[in-house]
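hi support,

uploading two proteins for the ticket. first:
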Amino acid sequence: MVRHSPRPLSSEVCEPEARDTPLFYNLTVPSPLLVFRKYGPGLLFVSAVTYLGFQIHWKFEAVSPLVASLVSGVLIGNIISIPGSFAPGQRFAAKKILRFGIVLLGTQLAAEQIIELGGREILVVLVVVATTFSGTVWLGPRLGVSKSLSLLIATGFSICGASAIAAVDGVVDADEEEVAYAIALVTLCGSLAIAVLPLLRDVVGLSDPHLFGAWVGASVHDVAQVIATSSTAGNDAVHSATVVKLSRVLLLAPLIGVISVWIQRPSAGITPRFPGRKAPLVPMFVVGFIVMVTFRTIGLIPDDWLTPLKKIEQWALAAALVGLGSEVKLRDLIKVGGRPLLLALTSWACIGTVSLLGVKYFA
């Protein structure tokens, strides 16, 4: 009787790693422990610095929690040596948590806020945003500012400051130093607006609180800065400023969609966040933003949810800026030079002038 040797088993069966590894790992789903070991240290660090940023905001209400968190992250990242094990958590905050915060930003907006404006006011907002954005993007390279930094400054000044800059960083592969510089510039000019615009109110002939509020809402960058500036003219000015400002914020989604498609063109001279991939018409986090605006508009988000959601959104965006800022080195920031400051001041003058003319003579 002839005995045949047994057939060798395939390597898939014989390899101990393949036989002993649970299906849980074969599906490339990491265990909670591995996830925590990778991201936990950095996220705990980001959470602690974010809390510090909010402590500063609670003590000095004029200071935005986003700006306080960013500055805290930058300073701590340059004063102490952050362990390399923190890096995955820092980057997770700077990218994933950022997008979550942008989605939640949509819960604060509803279509009726646009409808509340008249047709002329809507047209003024569109012209202000388009002129400021395109003018800044065009002028930046001619002043010697990189195209990516010009794009960040243009978006921050034309839409909603730090939040818009962070959103653009989700689709553009900009340096951390450029993002931090753009946020610093938009914060500087927005802070100057709090002092300068009320002084110019009577000079430019905007004694009417509604008109002054509309000018502030169309020209000042951060929502908190808009409220602080317009409050000098009373509640009517604050209401007008807030409505106009939120109409600018609603333009964030279509603008990001346009940017994400435009930067795929070689002639744009800007590196996409994910080069080589076919870009969606609108990034998924912007789709989420639009969905939240829709839910708010049709009443699926109750009014009593807005305050808690706003707090979560602020914490998420602040944490994202900590993750970003803590990887910024001041020596690299200084190398950027003074030309971006000139671009920012020009962009600020542009949005202030165009919005003033629109509000005073057209709206």
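and the second one:
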Amino acid sequence: MAQTPTGAAAAAPTASSTLVLTAAQTPHFENGMAILLNTWPALSLAVENEFGGPDSADKRDWMCGAVADLFSSNPATDEEDLEGFLLQILEDEFETALEDDSAFAVAQRVILLRRQCAADDLSGVQALQGMWDKLSKNKPRVQVVREDDSDDDDEDEDEDGEDEENDDKMDVDAGDEAPQLVAVKERVEKVVDEDGFELVQKNGRRTAR
């Protein structure tokens, strides 16, 4: 086992521990992060096949917001932390267990993107946006659903209410099809028995290759 460094080496923080994004940098990072998750084949497969039920697409939006909130609450989150977080959501929300290392690969790209944004390097975000613009002709709009606002009701899900939603959204300058910050939608309600214990509702774990 490697010895714990001492002196100046011990005082030097890791790259991830120093990444606190500014208010201007954060939307760009969240934009790119959401595109990475929305183009992750394993997650796309789970959504397209509704492994998470009929609201699988909404769960993906919430997942993007959950990742954004993870970094807000713990800026020192690294690749392994994020990989575990993504795998846990896939299992809990989509009943899916991966047999590959794609979650770690996505986590690595997200961390790299965060480091670039912290250095005001938007090349990674711009490349992702360019890719998304080409794909978005046949894709729905990407959204990041945040945890910190639970005031929305079912009107958010109505197509006719899109104009009313605009006041609650923060557009990212990268383009019209860029991910947006929207208020959190209602989650699936927990089922609690008469003794106060939460019942776990699963129909069996699925495996994504």
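thanks. also noticed: Helices lie at 7-11, 25-38, 41-48, 56-73, 79-94, 102-118, 123-135, 162-165.
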